[in-house]
Amino acid sequence: MVSIELIKQLREETDISLAECKKALEESNGDIEKAKEILKKKGESVAAKKSEREVNAGLIDAYIHAGGQVGVLIKVLCETDFVARGDLFKELIHELLLQIASMSPIYVSEEDIEGGAIEKEIEIYREQLVNDNKPDDIKENIIKGKLDKFKKEVCLLSQPWVKDNSMTVQDLINDYIAKLGENIKVKGFVRYEL
Q1: Same-domain status, 97 and 177
Q2: Which residues pair with 58 in a beta bridge?
Q3: CATH number, domain containing residue 168
Q4: In total, how many domains does the chain have?
Q5: pLDDT tens per residue across all 194 residues of the chain
Q6: pTM summary value
Q7: Domain housing 123
Q8: What is the CATH number of the domain that holds 21?
Q9: Is 9 exposed, middle or buried (0-12, 13-18, 19+ CB in 10 A)?
Q10: Which residues, at least 6 apart from 37, have a Cβ–Cβ distance to it below 8 Å?
């Protein structure tokens, strides 16, 4: 039997329903860290199940960084107006705005990168390795590694979250999908800087 205090503590730390917190704590034999991991895994599976559902509601929001040197405008969609008006959804949008302001992504996801940009990066990496005496297969692996790093830097969803770099921004969104019970998609953003 798991104590109600432990269930409340997990609920406060995760914002996930009391019933789900109780199940996770029972499954982890009262270990709160294991329970968080169980909830995270469930959140990922919930996000995967909900990813095909239509998103017809949402919000457009803005953030101007102190001093007025950086500004961000974002469009995030969810399934219902009820969720779009809620504090948790607005909290997620605020986190996304801060991420964009501080990390300067160019694209929402890897699928948004134009083919020409990838080809240009590969060309640059090949130029950098032209005088390197490594075998071609090693050079290709180096190029692949640099390209993966490039994608993580320029794609919002692939970036490590600024407040917890053990998570990506997509992981953060998946947590909110689990909390809110709806599919959530970042449809676009614009970042301005003086």
Answers
A1: yes
A2: 77
A3: 3.30.479.20
A4: 3
A5: 788 888 888 877 777 777 788 888 888 888 888 888 887 777 666 666 666 678 889 999 999 998 899 999 999 999 999 999 999 999 999 999 999 999 999 999 999 998 788 889 889 998 888 888 888 889 889 999 999 999 999 999 999 999 999 999 999 999 999 889 899 999 999 999 99
A6: 0.74
A7: 114-153
A8: 1.10.8.10
A9: middle
A10: 28
